[in-house]
Structure formats: structure tokens, C-alpha cells
Specification:
Elements: E1 21-24, E2 28-34, E3 40-44, E4 74-85, H1 91-100, E5 101-107, E6 112-117, E7 147-148, E8 157-159, E9 165-171, E10 181-194
Antiparallel strand pairs: 1-10, 2-10, 3-9, 4-7, 4-8, 4-10, 5-6, 5-9
């Protein structure tokens, strides 16, 4: 196409198509082991194959397929978090974990986007009602109970396929556990896969 008397030629073309995304209704989750006497930090979402101890993770421990990012062609709309101590844990170990750990969330740079005591990250589901008082649960045990991480205008935060992310459990005082305990973190939202 030729424009007026300027002599400048413009090339017009078809813009690239927007990819078609299929929403997969599943959270992302990862698990790490907490040991007696542990201090420092425990990092989740950075190794989908093994625990820090070197033991192999299974699909019961994580549903990640790549370390620290989603990988192409996936995207994720993050709306919140759940934290979950393994089932069957005694009250003393449960309380020790929740009272001594700070939950930190990073994505992109090394600046934490969220930093709160672990007691503010509910489990969201668990036993309740008569006869279940011996089962510790952090937060009201219903699926809709989670830490909301959406923006002030209630929009999910998009995590693209190449953005890095991780969760850090900062142990503020040495853990006093009767056994090694697994702790799982859920990223709640919608996982999208391009068709």
C-alpha cells in the first residue's frame, strides 16, 4: 500500500493469532520434608524430582513438571495459597510447625511478594465436627478457606510460562518434631495449557 505523496511505504500484515488456552481446574502443589532440629529455610517449587534429603518425590508430593517455573505452553492465574501439614500429625508437632515458620512467596526477582507467619496460611480442608478434636487443623476446615493473593481489584495474578517462582518456609527457631514431617503448599488458581 502506498501512502499519499510522502513516498513512505507501509507493509500491512495479519497480526499473530492469540493462542487458545484450555483452563485446567487444578492447583499446583509441592511438598518438602521438615525435620527435627531444622533451622534456616525450606524451599518449595524449585525441585520437582527430589526432596532436600535426596529422597524421590512422587505425584503425591508434587504435580510440577519443571523446576521453578511452569514451562511452555502453560500459564497460571494465581488467586491464593494453602499450606498443609501431613495428615495424622500430632498436636505438638502441628503447633511447632505453625508457630515457628514464616511463609514467603517469590516470583520474578528476589523480593518476596508475600511474607506472613505460617499461621495465616490456612489448610482449607480437614476434619471437623464431633470426635475430631484430636486432629489439628489451621483455619476453618472448608475448601473456600485460603489465603487470598489476588490484586485489590480481585483479579488473579498471571504467572507466565517463563517466570520463576518459589515458596520459602523460613524456620525462625529450631523445630522440635517427633519425626520427619511433610508439609505441602498449594498455589490455588487456574492452570492454562495452550491447545
Amino acid at each position: 500500500m502506498r501512502m499519499g505523496a510522502t513516498g513512505v511505504q507501509y507493509v500491512t500484515g495479519t497480526p499473530p493469532q492469540t493462542p487458545v488456552l484450555r483452563p485446567l481446574r487444578q492447583p499446583l502443589y509441592d511438598t518438602e520434608e521438615l525435620t527435627d532440629g531444622a533451622t534456616g529455610s525450606v524451599i518449595l517449587f524449585t525441585d520437582h524430582k527430589k526432596f532436600a534429603s535426596g529422597a524421590t518425590k512422587t505425584e503425591c508430593d508434587t504435580n510440577l513438571t519443571q523446576d521453578g517455573q511452569l514451562g511452555y505452553p502453560l500459564e497460571f492465574d494465581l488467586i491464593g495459597f494453602l499450606g498443609e501439614a501431613e495428615r495424622g500429625i500430632d498436636s505438638a508437632d502441628h503447633d511447632d510447625i505453625y508457630n515457628k515458620i514464616v511463609f514467603k512467596w517469590f516470583f520474578g526477582a528476589n523480593v518476596p511478594w508475600l511474607r506472613v507467619p505460617l499461621t495465616k496460611i490456612p489448610e482449607g480442608i480437614g476434619k471437623s465436627g464431633a470426635g475430631t478434636t484430636d486432629m489439628p487443623v489451621n483455619g476453618w476446615p472448608v475448601v473456600t478457606n485460603f489465603f487470598n493473593f489476588s490484586s485489590p481489584d480481585r483479579k488473579a495474578r498471571r504467572v507466565s510460562s517463563t517466570e520463576t517462582f518459589r515458596c520459602e518456609l523460613l524456620i525462625c527457631a529450631a523445630l522440635s518434631l517427633t519425626a520427619t514431617r511433610k508439609f505441602r503448599v498449594f498455589m490455588l488458581g487456574i492452570l492454562y495449557q495452550q491447545l
